[in-house]
């Protein structure tokens, strides 16, 4: 009697186990469907349309677009304004991430390795620019660099350096670097928080041993903190590069509008100008695809560094 019961029960248990193992997979699949649909509708399909449009002379005024194949891409590298925007973008990518991450790392080190009583306050103050709207950030710094009302020119005049005052955003030799300063100010606190979390993950014994051996704070930063955080620094560097491409569009739009004479024009701002001011959608989409390729390369590098960090 008992054998009969066991043979009846055993298959039932297997069925239950099989049902349990399928349910999580079904649940996960159901949860991912909305995100998948949204990604397809709002990202993949528009990207494919933009890619197809980049081979046409689309103006946005009619649906009768002529297929011109690679003409937009060929013209891109003969367009002086595009070349200028590309170089401006590369200048920002060379300067902004390095200085931003250096400031963020130093601030994180000071806040974690010193005995400041106001560490929480400083952490909040430094992180605050990261949560402000970029439009507001651009307006604030537009007033800082304002030729008449700006605090920068007032400070220079008051300390006897009035000969250095100038219309910072109206001078093509300084306008791009004013944009760079704004981007650095906005993002340094964001990366500082990342580095604070990373430094907190380092065993305190390491720093205590270095203190016993007579190492100062600078030596701890150079010989301990940076080597142990090198993978995190690599990842944040790629993130900062991508952020510079994206955020520079908003800052440039608010502060300079790409001027003076294209001195602060960057890739995304030039693409926007071609699409919505010149109604040259085909060419604008070619610039968008070119920028997208740069982002793909950065994402690929980020993935490589992430895999390396995970071991």
Task: Looking at this protein, list some descriptive labels.
globular, 311 residues, disordered N terminus, single chain, mainly alpha
Describe this structure in words.
Helix content is 76%, strand content 0%. It is built from 12 helices and no strands. The protein has helices at 2-53, 71-76, 80-113, 119-131, 134-144, 151-158, 175-200, 204-212, 217-228, 230-255, 267-276, 281-310. Helix 4 (119-131) crosses helix 7 (175-200), helix 5 packs across helix 10 and helix 11 (267-276) packs antiparallel against helix 12 (281-310). The radius of gyration is 27 Å and the shape is globular. The termini are far apart.
Blueprint (SSEs and pairs):
Blueprint: H1 2-53, H2 71-76, H3 80-113, H4 119-131, H5 134-144, H6 151-158, H7 175-200, H8 204-212, H9 217-228, H10 230-255, H11 267-276, H12 281-310
Helix pairs in contact: 1-12, 3-7, 3-10, 4-7, 5-10, 7-10, 10-12, 11-12
What is the CA–CA distance across the termini?
Answer: 56 Å
Shape: globular
Taking Cα atoms only, what radius of gyration do you get, to the nearest Å?
27 Å
Give the class from helix and strand content and strand pairing: mainly alpha
Stretches where pLDDT is under 50 for at least 5 consecutive residues are 1-9
Number of strands: 0
């Amino acid at each position: 009697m008992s054998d009969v019961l066991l043979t009846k029960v055993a298959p039932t248990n297997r069925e239950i186990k099989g049902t349990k193992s399928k349910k999580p997979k079904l649940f996960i699949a159901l949860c991912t469907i909305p995100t998948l649909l949204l990604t397809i509708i709002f990202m993949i399909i528009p990207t494919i349309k933009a890619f197809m449009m980049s081979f046409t002379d689309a103006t946005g005024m009619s649906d009768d677009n002529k297929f011109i194949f690679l003409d937009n891409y060929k013209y891109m590298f003969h367009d002086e304004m595009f070349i200028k925007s590309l170089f401006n973008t590369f200048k920002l990518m060379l300067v902004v991430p390095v200085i931003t991450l250096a400031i963020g790392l130093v601030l994180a080190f000071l806040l974690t390795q010193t005995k400041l009583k106001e560490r929480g306050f400083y952490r909040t103050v430094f992180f605050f620019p990261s949560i402000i709207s970029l439009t507001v950030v651009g307006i604030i710094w537009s007033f800082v660099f304002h030729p008449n009302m700006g605090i920068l020119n007032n400070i220079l005049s008051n300390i006897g350096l009035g000969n250095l005052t100038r219309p910072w955003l109206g001078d093509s030799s300084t306008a791009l670097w004013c944009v760079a300063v704004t981007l650095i100010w906005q993002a340094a606190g964001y990366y500082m928080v990342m580095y604070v979390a990373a430094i907190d993950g380092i065993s305190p014994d390491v720093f205590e041993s270095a203190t016993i051996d007579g190492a100062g704070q600078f030596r701890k930063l150079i010989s301990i903190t940076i080597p142990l955080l090198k993978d995190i620094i690599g990842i944040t560097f790629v993130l900062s590069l991508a952020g510079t491409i994206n955020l520079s569009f908003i800052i440039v739009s608010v502060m300079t509008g790409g001027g003076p004479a294209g001195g602060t024009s960057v890739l995304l701002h030039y693409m926007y100008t071609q699409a919505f001011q010149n109604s040259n959608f085909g060419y604008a989409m070619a610039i968008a695809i070119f920028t997208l390729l740069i982002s793909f390369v950065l994402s690929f590098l980020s993935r490589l560094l992430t895999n390396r960090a995970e071991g």
